[in-house]
Amino acid sequence: MSTVLYPGSFDPVHRGHIEIIEVASSLFDAVVVAALRNPQKGEPMFDLAERKTMIEESVAHLPNVKVVGFSKLVVEVAQDVGADFIIKGLRAVSDFESEMHQAHMNLATSGVHTVFIPSATEHSFVASKLIREIARFGGDVSSMVPEPVAKRLDERFPR
Description:
The chain is an alpha/beta fold.
């Protein structure tokens, strides 16, 4: 049975993330989505429990996907869940350099390889940072996020 780990801050999870999860769920027996607290990205819009719940609600249609939260090294989580691979989504060429660097570091420290999955063109511009900014100023991001996320954004930032 092959297990893959998809780590990220997912603050919030968006349709590009869901696309990567759906592709991974068709390629691997089990997908573990791991939401993390990334201090390099500042204070999150949603706490870890909220992000975990939104992801779970957004992938409920995928029976082979499990969601966890963590605040340790990705390679430690990969070992904890028995991941054979780590997956990362690529939106643009600019993502490749930083993701490749991280993939090499993860391989060197744990022996776990990273598999890259490119996003579809219609999702390549979507980024959580931009979704947060648009939502804070009352913009409509409902076409870019799953319904559970849109609902929470509307509650937090009524238009």
